[in-house]
Write a structure and sequence with these properties.
This protein has about 350 residues and is of the alpha/beta class. It is about 25% helix and about 20% strand. The N terminus and C terminus are likely disordered.
Length: about 350
């Protein structure tokens, strides 16, 4: 039995197409393109099922996370629609990664988690899954991820929700070839496929993220690749099963500017091709502005501002967002003056927050 890398937990297989069109939350009528003013009943179109009262793909409500006496996340609420890219930005220790791990149920026993994380799950035949008995009655066709068993979460990770980790060198198994690691992501939820078929699938996934000579390098190990190539391999592992939601946790942090731009362009292309919903986590507002259609700014476990990137990058409302932008040097920055700093409020002095 081979050693399973951390990525294998998130792997899965889902061959069904998208269930719902992208939702414009400001225009409810766009939720159902086939419903007229006189006909409000849901209809079917081929294998796709439409629902007039379709909930968001991901709906986080009043999420609180504690590690002992320390509060990492303070009752945040976020929504993410099908095909939408939500940027979650904030300084280190603001609770971004803790929020992402809570979605997948990976915080461990030391964490005390409260609130609800509703997920609009689906079967491979295009129908909604049966609701868990402990679901709240007002969430429609959704399940609460915080109240699912570990077995249910293992079936969901990678099958519908995948994750790209911060550090490729620590996320990949150093004594297993990259090809086998990518193939195992597929095999974990596709037991009926043969090893040869899984290998073909893995090579195709590596080619999709522009790994040169993917078939020849199938047997190479992580130390034989550059940092940018390792990040591409992680992306291939996350997307080999065509999930509906991709969580990208600081995917460009350890890369130089040129490679960072290439990875961002790759993620944008893959998101557009597969109509992925994406939660893009970063501490860099400029990077988030490149990929996100909506941005949430997080500080000390709380969401302080949410809006489109153009607004947040040019005319932010919250003082913290303005201070983040002021701390970024530009060509117009006066080099004779020290860079602006984000000052702590009185409530933050003496407190610590873990991410």
């Amino acid at each position: 039995m081979s050693f399973l890398s951390p990525q294998i937990i998130y792997s899965g297989y889902l061959c069904a197409g998208r269930l719902y069109p992208r939702v414009d939350r400001k225009n409810p009528s766009s939720r159902h393109p086939f419903i007229g003013a006189q006909n409000k009943s849901p209809r079917k179109f081929g294998a796709m099922h439409y629902d007039w009262l379709m909930p968001p793909l991901l709906d986080i409500r009043d999420l609180e996370i504690h590690f002992g006496p320390t509060k990492a996340v303070s009752g945040i609420s976020l929504q993410l629609d099908e095909g939408e890219v939500l940027g979650l930005v904030g300084e280190s220790g603001s609770g971004k990664s803790a929020t992402a791990l809570a979605i997948l149920g990976l915080l461990g026993k030391a964490a005390q988690v409260k609130g609800n994380i509703f997920w609009r799950a689906a079967n491979s035949d295009g129908t909604q899954v049966a609701l868990a008995p402990n679901n709240l009655p007002d969430v429609g066709d959704s399940i609460d991820l915080l109240r699912q068993s570990q077995a249910a979460l293992r079936r969901l990770r990678g099958r519908e929700i995948a994750m790209i980790f911060q550090e490729p060198m620590t996320a990949l198994n150093p004594v297993m070839s990259i090809g086998r690691q990518v193939a195992e992501c597929f095999e974990a939820h596709a037991s009926s496929w043969t090893g040869r078929e899984a290998k073909r699938k893995a090579i195709a996934a590596l080619e999709a993220v522009s790994i040169p000579e993917a078939a020849r390098r199938y047997g190479d190990y992580p130390h034989q690749f550059s940092g940018g190539q390792l990040q591409r391999i992680l992306i291939a592992m996350a997307l080999i099963n065509r999930p509906r939601l991709l969580i990208a946790d600081e995917p460009t942090t350890a890369l130089d500017v040129t490679v960072q731009a290439q990875i961002l362009a790759l993620l944008k292309d893959l998101q557009r091709q597969q109509d992925l919903a994406m939660l893009f986590i970063s501490h860099d507002l400029a990077v988030v502005g490149e990929v996100a259609s909506r941005v949430a700014v997080m500080r000390n476990g709380a969401i302080v501002e949410t809006g489109p990137p153009a607004q947040l990058l040019t005319a932010p409302n919250h003082p913290y967002t303005r201070s983040l932008l002021a701390a970024v040097p530009t060509l117009r920055t006066n080099r004779g003056l020290p860079l602006a700093m984000v000052e702590k409020s009185q409530s933050e002095i003496g407190s610590s927050y873990a991410e």
